[in-house]
Specification:
The chain is built from 20 helices and six strands. By secondary structure, the chain is mainly alpha-helical. A hairpin with a 2-residue loop joins β1 (336-339) and β2.
Length: 738
């Protein structure tokens, strides 16, 4: 029974990848439209691949150097191994491949969605969402396959082969080596998210400021030299970056729960590893329920509600997961369990899972409210656009700050409730429950950039107005789903980071984080500062790259005659090159801060000060992520509202009006908020926690205590020889001398 369940986990990952391949083949068979559409799509695909190749080249050197250091560090402590380097490399490769899967299908689905929109909104939704589901299933399938397969290997090598206790040091070693997989995944995710975010927003801001504001041409006009780079950015940032991001989140959540599960002595039918296996089983079955939920995403005709269809698919997959978790928990876990002295039952674990699903759902609903068209927050920004650019900015900042209140209360309630149910394991399993439907969440998220690209191709190809109208409906919903996806990601990051934090405390051998100590309080403040400097670097990078983009677009408008009359083609590749070089150059410093700061603090000041820093970065990062993502999403949809016309104080305003120009400024400010620094926060806090977890055995108080004991206490051994009945008998006497 035990062996069968272990092998079921990677098998479920393979099922997800198989369904992904079927859906990918279906998308590839759809019509691509006329030659002009295919040419434009080809430019986008070529630019996206050029960026990924340039990014992978830099990351290759990082992975090699980090792998060597990890292999060396694995020889220094008993609970690690040089094999952690191999685990790290596999995690990095899988993370990069997850991003590639999403980007590859997105660059195929965009033009096919445009062509489908020439027939009906229903078909356009089907193509774009199927493209998104390929990415969702690819990410979830790779995560479950990789994590499940590696656990089987490490469990066999370190635990079963030696007949060791499943709650002992050998299992701790197996999970510590497995943590390398998560570290590799999150490291690549951070660089992919930051680099992709800088790329997409540099192009977007440049295209908007010169094209829409100065030249007065539409957003995706073929005459704008930056428009191809803008569409490339949607793929490398919102698709490849998000894919690597949620891959890392998914893996980190499962790993944190497994590490805490090792501390539970479980009298079960699975050799005592049921609490460790449970999060992987939930993740694997979540793929199946996501596939079932995807079948509900459809509309009847052009009057169908796209948002409602997506919500139906999302909520159905959540309900399926909740129902199944009852039977899984009852089957796998014994009646009573305990962790660190906290007693709970298997039903308490089930309640914690349900709570995690509820928290994830509420976070999506709240984020949708603050970013969706027609809701009070976006309408307030629209109204303030009537009095100029400054009041639009004030309105957006206010909405972003207000939008943190309800999510934080929901998160706080979720953390408290999950702990009341099942202690620290309850918090971790709640996060695992929330992340179980990642395939569905990511499908909904990836659908947005595909629809955005489809609208851009429709505009550049000068297709009939009704085609752009259909893609605009999808794009508007996509803006909201992107915001809700980021809200979901930051919520899962908060719960996951707390679980990783708890795992770090256990392995580091500290009982509590005492903020009355000056050094711990100092670490808390330093941690709270890191999201701010990280955001500053990311936003400043977008600003510098956008300046280069603006100058290039102005140069082409000025020096290439005939662009505005459609007689000459812009030099799209120049703008693609600017975004690529800037993003690769600028992503290194923010990434280095996330990776190096825990190492410096941990080794210089010890695990308790590092714990204080992790607490600070988690709280500050969650708030910054919510504020920036929601403010940016609200600004974006406020701008889009003018495309159909908005009423302000009894008067109607449309595109190119003064309030619309103010909304464009707000959207431009919000772009790096929602697509660069904001969504990077959840990777930042998880990556720092995982780095801390990996170095925990090296800075452990337990190891330090052992060294101190060896210095303070010495043994005096006396050997005596006694003759009894003509035979010599040796006796050893040990005396402990202080």
């Amino acid at each position: 029974m035990e062996q069968a369940l272990i092998y079921v986990v990677p098998a479920l990952g393979l099922v997800g990848l198989l369904v992904m391949a079927v859906k990918s083949a279906w998308v590839s068979k759809q019509a691509t439209g006329d030659a002009n559409m295919v040419e434009l799509s080809g430019h986008i695909a070529k630019g996206a691949m050029a960026f990924l190749k340039a990014e992978w080249k830099i990351l290759f050197y990082f992975v090699v150097i980090a792998g060597i250091l990890l292999a060396w560090s694995g020889t220094l402590v008993e609970t690690s191994s040089p094999v952690i380097a191999l685990s790290f490399v596999i995690g990095a490769v899988f993370s990069a491949f997850a991003g590639y899967i999403g980007m590859n299908i997105a660059t195929k689905a965009n033009v096919r969605t445009t062509q489908a929109a020439r027939t009906s909104l229903k078909q356009a939704l089907k193509v774009s969402f199927t493209g998104g589901s390929v990415m969702g299933l690819g990410v979830a399938g790779l995560a479950v396959l990789g994590l499940g397969a590696l656990f089987i290997v490490f469990y066999q090598v370190y635990v079963l082969s030696s007949g060791a206790d499943v709650n002992g040091l050998e299992m701790e070693k197996a999970l510590e080596v497995l943590a390398g997989f998560s570290l590799g995944a999150e490291s690549i995710a951070l660089f992919a998210r930051v680099g992709g975010g800088i790329y997409t927003k540099a192009a977007d801001v440049g295209a908007d400021l010169v094209g829409k504001v100065e030249a007065g041409i539409p957003e995706d006009d073929v005459r704008n030299p930056a428009t191809i780079a803008d569409n490339v950015g949607d793929n490398v940032g919102d698709v490849a970056g998000m894919g690597a991001d949620l891959f890392g989140s998914y893996v980190a959540t499962i790993l944190a729960t497994m590490v805490l599960g090792r501390e539970i002595v479980s009298l079960d039918n699975f050799g005592g590893i049921a609490p460790i296996l449970l999060p992987m089983v939930l993740a694997g079955l979540g793929i199946i329920f996501s596939i079932m939920g995807m079948a509900f995403v459809t509309i009847k005709d052009d009057q169908g509600d796209v948002q409602k269809a997506l919500n139906m698919g999302n909520w159905s997959s959540i309900v399926f997961t909740g129902i199944a978790s009852f039977f899984i928990v009852k089957h796998m876990l014994p009646e009573t369990l305990s962790i660190r002295g906290y007693e709970f039952t298997n039903m308490d674990v089930f309640y914690a899972i349900i709570l995690g699903l509820v928290v994830g759902t509420l976070m999506s609903i709240i984020t949708e409210y603050y970013t969706a068209m027609g809701k009070r927050p976006v309408l307030s920004i629209i109204k303030q656009s009537a009095t100029g650019h400054a009041t639009n900015i004030i309105g957006g900042l206010s909405v972003g700050m207000e939008s943190t209140v309800l999510p934080i209360l929901v998160l706080a309630g979720g953390i408290y409730g999950a702990y009341e149910f099942a202690g620290l394991y309850g918090v971790a399993i709640a996060a695992a429950g929330m992340m179980a439907t990642t395939a569905m969440q990511l499908a909904i998220d990836a659908f947005g950039p595909i629809a955005d690209n489809a609208g851009g191709i429709a505009e550049m190809s000068q297709l009939p107005e009704e085609v752009r109208g259909r893609t605009d409906i999808l794009d508007a919903v996509g803006n909201t789903t992107a915001a809700t996806g980021k809200g979901f990601a930051i919520a899962s990051a908060a719960l996951t980071s707390l679980a990783l934090f708890a795992a770090f405390v256990g392995i580091a051998g500290i009982d509590a984080i005492d903020i009355y100590k000056a050094d711990v309080l100092a670490g808390l403040f330093v941690g709270g500062m890191i999201p701010f400097i990280f955001s500053s670097l990311a936003i400043a990078a977008v600003g510098r790259a956008a300046m280069d983009m603006v100058n290039e677009v102005r140069r082409q408008f000025r020096e290439i005659p005939g662009i505005m009359e459609y007689k000459a083609k812009p030099e799209y590749e120049k703008c693609v090159e600017i975004s690529t070089k800037a993003s690769i150059r600028e992503m290194i410093l923010p990434g280095a801060i996330a990776l190096i700061s825990p190492l410096i603090v941990g080794f210089a000041f010890g695990p308790e000060v590092l714990g204080g820093m992790l607490a600070g970065v988690t709280v500050s990062g969650v708030l910054m992520g919510m504020f920036q993502s929601n403010a940016g999403g609200a600004w974006d949809n406020a701008k889009k509202s003018f495309e159909k016309g908005v009423e302000i104080n009894g008067e109607m305003y449309y595109k190119k009006s003064e309030p619309h120009k103010a909304s464009v400024t707000g959207d431009t400010v919000g772009d790096p908020f929602k697509d660069t620094s904001g969504p990077s926060m959840n990777i930042l806090i998880k990556l720092m926690s995982i780095v801390a977890l990996v170095i925990a055995p090296h800075i452990s108080e337990k190891a330090h205590t052992a060294v101190v004991d060896a210095e303070i206490f010495k043994k005096e051994v006396k050997k005596e020889v006694v003759i009894v009945d003509g035979k010599k008998t040796e006796t050893l006497t040990e005396t402990i001398l202080k």
